[in-house]
Amino acid sequence: MDGSHLSVVVDLSPSQWHLSSLQNQPYPLDLSSFISQLLAFLNAHIASRHENSLAVFGAFPGKSVLLYSSADPPTETPPSDANSFPAFRLVNSTIMHNIVQHLEALDDSSDEEAPSALVGALTKALCYINRLTLEFNASTANANATEGLEPLTLSDPRVLILSVSPDQTASYIPVMNSIFSAQKLKVTIDACQIYGSETVFLQQAAHLTGGSYIYLERRDALLQYLTMAFLPPPSIRQTISVPTQDKIDFRAACFCHKNIVDVGFVCSVCLSIFCQPVPVCSTCRTKFPIKTLQRLNAARPSLPLTSASQSRNPSVSSTPQKTNGRSSATPSRPVETPLGPGGLPHSGSINAHNINGAAHHGVQNGLGSSG
Amino acid sequence: MPTNDSDTLDDKNSITVSNKPHALLPFLQLQSATSLSRLYQSPSSCLSIFRLLDSVERQLVMNLLWLESAISLSTMGAWVVQEKKKFYDDALDILTRLHILHVHSGKLSLNTTFKTSLRHAITGGGSTGSFGVPAEKDEKRPPMDVEGLDGYALERWETILHFMVSSGTGQNPTRPSQGVLYLLQRSGLMSNQQGSTPQITSTGFQFLLHRPHAQLWDLLLQYLHMAEERQMDLVEVLTFFFMLSTMELGREYLTENLSQTQKAMLDDLRDYGLIWQRRASSRRFSPTRLATTLTSTSPSLPTSTGMTSSSQQGFIVLETNYRIYAYTDNPLQTAVLNLFVSLKYRFPNLVVGSITRDSVRKALNNGISAEQIISYLTTHAHPQMRKFNPLIPVTVQDQIRLWELEKERLKSQEGYLYTAFASQADYEFVLNYAKQLDVVLWENSAKRCFFGSLEGHSNIRNFIERRISGAV
Predict the structure, then answer these.
(1) Chain B contact for A338, CB < 8 A?
(2) Which segments carry the region annotation Disordered (chain A) (predicted)?
(3) Contact A230/A37 with Cβ under 8 angstroms?
(4) A42: pLDDT strictly greater than 90
(5) How close B146 comes to chain A (CA, Å)?
């Protein structure tokens, strides 16, 4: 398989998109113009190579859905038209149709909207890539596998997460597990936070899998950001670089209250993280001596845990140990990657002032079929 | 250690990045800016050309596609990793020569026509109809299904190749149509010197060992050259190729919106197996897989297979003892193998032979090089072979190369033998002069003679004549 695979996870939480489209926001962006720019980006990915494959997953409140997959294209093709490329038309109409269908089916009887199933969609995307890898190996009558060698992996599989929701601290463990699976599958995770606050988990996901994370400041330039930062597959990124992060928020969420902690306490046996010293580890049931607990409690910062406290007690060395908080672990990426010396541009340097054409160039097929 | 890692990564990457540019691009670069600009008016052409570009070039085009104003060279250059600057510069160079990119007073911008068309291609819209006007479903006569189209394309294509491979062997395979024969002769793949039966030439033999995708483009490039001579409008020919490449397999299209030139091309393309028509006069046509995969790089054309999916991944098992087992029942593949293998047995699904000195020499005499044989064997190796590294046994590879060197052991060169010098001094005097000119190929002072190359002869003769006349 020569082409590169791209799985896109799209956050389609109606309430967040509503907030994003409000006029009091700097650069308001509503869902329909987002989707038309997204479709242009997806088409650009398919356009790049005949063999490129694509899957799109939607994260709706409380459920995640496969919106489009080039491995099993829908059987009914849209009516032909002399002015558009058949493959693009198929992608556009399928995705639009599915999004509209699922948004209409949403249950809006309760006031409280369930959080977006972003992690579910990410997991599905990874499972999907795993399936492709297995099929690919099976189809090449893989001699490597029978020889006990490492099975072949797809070239350059990627996941791109387009998120508008804040971090859900409850999903810390599933996110981390997804990151580890992605590392094992050699999948690069790219992430783009389009609306809302910076997310800690997506930053870590991108950093740990060698991907790119962008917090979108100029929402009117979305398509240009997508094209320059997320279109090139990893092999091209060694020639034309993509924006890198200066700072990564490495904070973890505790297992007990699912809070993101600055200073945490780690079980020396199973490495579970807690926001306060506990007598018994809730994961592995290890009991800690009462003396250690007392000493740790005395050493705890007096401020509430959520605020960024800088107080450190260097004497804490016995179980449980302290974890690294944010202040001690903010390695800047250029130092670690070989891309460093060129003084590569930061995500802020994507030029946004002259791309007004992008937003107006709506994807006519896709939007047409929805209305 | 980290430096080592990055080095190996770089090597791997440089292989993928420095792929040879597509065969069509040099041809396009030769065209004038006006005809390219006409070509870029069609969104489907822009999309197809975009696909033929290399990965870095594609990314550059995409980066600039949605920008309304020009961007300065330094801003663009800031995105390039310093060590890979060469790829970036090459990419800029190729894009400029294709007139896709303009560099004007330190600013980069896309050709406006190209930009508008590619935007139309990606977002849809416009009214150019460049992706072909699909025909309404006809209940009475349903379009040919995909399998039928594959079969048709395969049959047409293999007829051409089989005709080439068996010319001069005394067999009488089906002759392809006159148009195809003419194209084969024009392109120098077959010669027509001895009587009426065309003979395959050494370029033709080399052609047979290429991948199907490259073969197809070779022929189409020849077709383009021929179109120039036939006074056909090149832009319309190219537009039609690109339109075909963006069409959907298994769908019928109307011929009504085609230009006169393009309608005339239908006959030729039908002969090559790129399109299918119910009747020659039919107002509908269906592109075959040969046409719709024109801009892909995948070798998964129906021609590369025999017929089943298993042979798609190769069918040749080669052993260290020069024995070759080819799991195929395809007469074309057998005939191609016969070019450099001496075949021993044939079974319904298996051909057994061995690579011998004589069989390889026969191939070398036909103009096929050792590298081509090895690359053919590599390309069509059976999946079972793929677990070996290197894939082709080293002994066999080396021996094939040695056989090629053996052929080049004797080199002939035209020249003159100078002999019967009156004295040793005369001999040495002339020899020294010839040595200064660097034209001496062989010398023997005992016999007072030396051999000089053809180019040096007039100088040496003049020198001797002057010397004689001077002495007299």
Answers:
(1) yes
(2) 301-371
(3) no
(4) yes
(5) 15
Alpha carbons A90 and A78: distance in angstroms, whole number: 7
Please calculate the CA angle A259-A263-A267 and round it to the nearest 5 degrees: 85
- The whole-angstrom distance between A261's CA and the closest CA on chain B is 33
Q: What is the pTM of this model?
A: 0.75
Distance CA B17, CA B295 (A): 18
**Is A109 a residue whose pLDDT tops 70?**
no
Distance CA A103, CA A13 (A): 9
Closest C-alpha to B126, from B235, B47, B28: B47
Cβ separation A232–B59 shorter than 8 A: yes
What DSSP state is assigned to residue B381? Answer: B
Q: Å from A133 to nearest chain B CA? A: 17
User: Measured between CB atoms, which of A51, A349, A357 is closest to B68?
Assistant: A357
- Higher confidence at residue A173 or residue A346? A173
- With beta carbons under 8 A apart, name residues in chain A contacting B295: 50
**How far is the CA of B259 from the CAs of A105, B34, B263, in angstroms?**
49, 19, 6
The pLDDT of residue B311 is: 40
Token pair listed for B178: 């006159």
Distance, in Å, from the CA atom of B309 to the CA atom of B387, rounded to the nearest integer, reads 20
Give pLDDT, residue A124.
93
Kindly state whether A37 is in contact with chain B, defined as any CB-CB distance less than 8 angstroms.
Answer: no
**B193-216 pLDDT, tens per residue?**
655 667 777 788 788 878 777 888
What one-letter code names the amino acid at B117? S
Superfamily of domain A5-250+343-370 in CATH is von Willebrand factor, type A domain (3.40.50.410)
Query: Would the pLDDT of A125 be above 90?
Result: yes
- Per-residue tokens: B71: 């961007």
In degrees, rounded to 5, the angle at the alpha carbon of residue A134 between the alpha carbons of residues A132 and A140 is 100
Structure confidence at residue A75 (pLDDT): 67
CA distances from residue A248 to A224, A244, A292 in whole angstroms, order as listed: 23, 10, 32
The verdict on a CB contact (< 8 Å) between B55 and A358 is no
Does A356 contact B at CB distance below 8 Å? yes
Distance CA B109, CA A31 (A): 30
Tokens of A70: 């080039």
Residues A236, B82: C-beta atoms closer than 8 Å: no
Residue B354, pLDDT above cutoff 90: yes
- A264 in Cβ contact with A323 (< 8 Å): yes
Q: pLDDT tens, B63-99?
A: 899 888 888 888 888 888 888 888 888 888 889 989 9
Q: Say what the pLDDT of residue B170 is.
A: 62
Residue of B nearest to A80 (CA): B134
CA distance B396 to chain A (A): 22
The residue assigned the tokens 């601290």 is A169
Q: Is A355 on the interface with B (CB under 8 A)?
A: yes
Nearest-CB residue to B384 (from A50, A143, A232): A143
Question: Is B66's CB within 8 Å of A223's CB?
Answer: yes
Identify which of B80, B293, B384 has the shortest CB distance to residue A239: B80
ipTM, 2 dp? 0.74
Number of Cβ pairs < 8 A linking chain A and chain B: 175
Q: Determine contact: A361 vs chain B, CB below 8 A.
A: yes
Range list for CATH 3.30.70.2610 in chain B: 415-471
Neighbours of B214 (CB within 10 A): 14
pLDDT per residue over B88-146, tens digit each? 888 888 899 899 988 888 888 889 999 999 998 888 877 777 788 887 776 667 777 77
Mention every residue, 6+ apart, whose C-beta is less than 8 A from residue B15: none
β-bridge partners, B315: none
**CATH second-level architecture of B415-471?**
2-Layer Sandwich (3.30)
Gap between the Cα atoms of A306 and A36, Å rounded: 39
Statement: residue A56 has pLDDT above 90: yes
